[in-house]
């Protein structure tokens, strides 16, 4: 079994990077302080946001590879494993924000942390920053470090958490910008999505496996479900789930013209376990039942 370096506490990650522990549950790390090291596969029991300043080689997450470029942010949530073990030494560079789930427990940020979907994105879906955006990130990290170096008082936790929340909200804006500026790349993914559905619908998958899920489509395109869903929503104005359903209805309309097939037969061919579910969806999307659509056309 491959060795994995585990980081369950902020202190363990600080020690690994030669960073002083100013607070047991939150830290801002300057990787230039770290000693040269091999590449490791790492498990995080923490929220970790890494800003890479320079090209630092390959990093893997799941089955995806990502080549770090200057000015990129990558997000990890507790329970994720990332990295690849290699023997050659390298000098880490960049910065990181790390915080334990206990630090935000019981706060507004703790209740809404799942809303920041990029913590579930794959590494190859990293956030590529402009120079101005990168400076905002560094300013946020600097404000957090200032509070950590300041003597702890009744305001400390609130100020640090509010700064983290503001930083994450900026990241939401930056990702929205990235969906626009990388539009050509995303259009290619939308085309691949449509091709994937076309091939799926015309294979035996519908009868054998049922309707394709968002998770299946995202995995087939080597994307995380969250990133894939956001991308399709930005490109089409519809959720990926709705997009799939509309393609199913388009296919259903073709089949309904075959009067030798009953509505139940068509429903089973389309992967519905129960014909009434098909009828309900068809009426929801078209305003008519399958039989009414057939008689009208």
* Integer-rounded radius of gyration: 24 Å
**Strand order in the largest sheet:** 2-9-4-7-10
Uncertain residue segments: 55-69
**Total strands:** 10
* Largest sheet report: 5 strands, antiparallel
The outline comes out as elongated
Number of helices: 13
Structural class: alpha+beta
Task: Note the gap between the termini.
Answer: 61 Å
* Elements, N to C (H/E): EHEEEEEEEEHHEHHHHHHHHHH
Strand composition percent: 15-25%
Overall helicity: 40-55%
Whole-number mean pLDDT: 85
List the helices and strands and how they pair.
Blueprint (H helix, E strand, L loop, with lengths): L4 E3 L2 H7 L9 E5 L6 E8 L2 E6 L5 E4 L2 E4 L4 E5 L3 E11 L4 E5 L1 H4 L3 H5 L14 E2 L2 H19 L6 H26 L1 H19 L3 H5 L4 H7 L4 H12 L3 H17 L6 H7 L5 H12 L3 H7 L1
Parallel strand pairs: 1-3
Antiparallel strand pairs: 2-9, 3-8, 4-7, 4-9, 5-6, 7-10
Helix pairs in contact: 4-5, 10-12, 11-12
Structure characterization notes:
This protein is an alpha+beta fold and 297 residues long. 30% of the residues are buried. The chain is elongated, with a radius of gyration of 24 Å. About 5% of the residues have low confidence. Helix content is 49%, strand content 18%. The chain contains 13 helices and ten strands. A five-stranded antiparallel beta sheet has the order 2-9-4-7-10. Strands 1-3-8 form a three-stranded mixed beta sheet. Helix 4 packs antiparallel against helix 5 and helix 10 packs across helix 12.
